Amino acid sequence: MSTSRCNILAAGSAGSTAFETSSRSAHAGSNSDHETDVAELIQRSADSNAALMRGDIDTYRTLISYTDDFTLMSPFGGTPSRGSEYTPERIEAMGRFFKNGIFKQEVVQSYASADMVVLAIIERQNVEVRGLPAQEWPLRVTLVYRREESEWRLAHRHADPLVRGISLEQAAALARGDT
């Protein structure tokens, strides 16, 4: 496995999407093929999540497709959800959950092989969520994309709101289920 230095700075459509990468990227096999795949998935992630934060579920769904065994570990905790739970009604509800958002992402690390790409990302969004006033919602996110035939599909997303960090005592209280 070789390692290459990746420095990318790009902005997306209408100023609502931006991503920065200043990280070490690990790749197995041909670096140029994997670097192209990684760059495309970074952009697709930024564009799809920017659309979702605006409440534009149609654009989100055109950019992201889930594997049949997709898992989501939500930033709100609880039991992970599975791809089979994402009915058309639930997907439409996802689009109504977010409104008027602005999205940016920072890629911390990427890993790539012939059939899998993992992105470790800090997402920074300012968005109205489920009727709450707009606020900052920074998240630490891990995305796992898997190639199925010629298509890259999202197999796993894990997000948590611990960008700013918490104390050991706060973590212990969360682990105990204290509010």
Describe this structure as you would to a colleague.
- The protein is α+β, with helices and mostly antiparallel strands and 179 residues long.
- The protein has a single domain (2-176), classed as Nuclear Transport Factor 2, Chain: A (Roll), CATH 3.10.450.
- Helices cover 28% and strands 46% of the residues.
- It has helices at 31-54, 57-63, 88-97, 168-176, and strands at residues 2-11, 17-27, 66-73, 81-82, 98-112, 116-129, 135-136, 139-148, 151-160.
- β1 and β2 (17-27) form a beta hairpin.
- α1 (31-54) packs antiparallel against α2 (57-63).
- The N and C termini lie far apart (44 Å).
- The model is unreliable at 1-25 (pLDDT under 50).
Gist?
This protein is an alpha+beta fold and 179 residues long. It contains four helices and nine strands, in the order ββααββαβββββα.
Can you count the beta strands?
Answer: 9
**Average of per-residue pLDDT values:** 85
Number of helical segments?
Answer: 4
Our measurement of the CA-to-CA distance between the termini, rounded to an integer number of angstroms, reads 44 Å
